[in-house]
Amino acid sequence: NILAVALWSTEEARAVLAAGAAGVRRLLGRFEALLRHEERRIREAATWSIGRIHDPRAPMSLMRAANSDLPSVRVLACQALGASGDSMVLSTLVDKLEHDRVGEVRVAAAIGLGKLGRPEAVPALIQALRSQTGSIARASALAIGAIGNPAAAEPLLEALFRGDDALASAAAWA
Questions:
Q1: How far apart are the C-alpha atoms of 29 and 113, rounded to whole Å?
Q2: What distance in Å separates the CA atoms of residue 106 and residue 96, rounded to the nearest whole number?
Q3: Which of the four pLDDT bands, split at 50, 70 and 90, describes residue 2?
Q4: How far, CA to CA in Å, does 9 sit from each of 4, 38, 59, 78?
Q5: Is 66 in contact with 75 (CB distance < 8 Å)?
Q6: Is the pLDDT of residue 132 over 70?
Q7: In this structure, are residues 77 and 65 in contact, taking their beta carbons and an 8 Å threshold?
Q8: What's the sign of the alpha-carbon dihedral 81, 97, 94, 100?
C-alpha cells in the first residue's frame, strides 16, 4: 500500500515518506498540515508518517485523518490507529467498521481493532462477522482471533459453515 504511494508519487510525497520513516516527533505539526494538501499522494504520505511518530498527540491527528474524504487516507489512518495501542481510538475504529461506505476502510478498521487488542472491540467485530461477507467478515474473524476472546467462539463456529472457504480458514485460525 505505502510502497505504491512511494513508487507513483511526487518528489514531495517521497520526501514526506522519508521524513515519516525517521519518526521525528517535531515534524508532527507539519504532517498534520499536509493532511489538508490538495494532492492525494501527499495526504496519504502524511497520514502514514503520522502513524510512524511515537507522540501522544499522533492518535488525535489520525482520528481526524480517519474522517478524510479520501478512502486511501482513511485506510492508512485505521491501520495506524490500531498500531498506536491508544485506547481512545477504539470508538473511531468501531465507527469505521460499522459505518464507512468503503469496504477497504471497513477491512482496515477490523484489522486495526485486532491490532489494538481491546476486548471491548469484540462485540462490534462479532456483529461484522455475522452481518458482512467477503473480506470484511474475514478481517473481523482474524481480529477476533488476535484479541482472543472466548465469548466469540460461537460466531466463529458459525463462520466455519457459511460456504466461504477463506472465511472458514480465518475463523479456524481465530
A1: 26
A2: 6
A3: low
A4: 8, 13, 25, 21
A5: no
A6: yes
A7: yes
A8: positive
Locate 72 and state its grid cell: 486511501
CA dihedral 104, 105, 109, 114 (to 10 degrees): 20
CB 93 within 8 A of CB 78: yes
**Under a CB-based contact definition with an 8 Å cutoff, are residues 25 and 54 in contact?**
yes
- C-alpha cell read off for 26: 517535531
Q: What is the DSSP string of the chain?
A: -HHHHHHTS-HHHHHHHHHHHHT-GGGHHHHHHHTT-SSHHHHHHHHHHHHH---TTHHHHHHHHTT-S-HHHHHHHHHHHHHH--GGGHHHHHHHHHH-S-HHHHHHHHHHHHHHT-GGGHHHHHHHHHH--HHHHHHHHHHHHHHT-GGGHHHHHHHHTSS-HHHHHHHHH-
In Å, what is the CA distance from 86 to each residue of 33, 41, 63, 151?
22, 26, 11, 23
Taking the whole predicted model, whether its pTM rises above 0.85 is answered as yes
Query: 12 near 40, Cβ under 8 Å?
Result: no
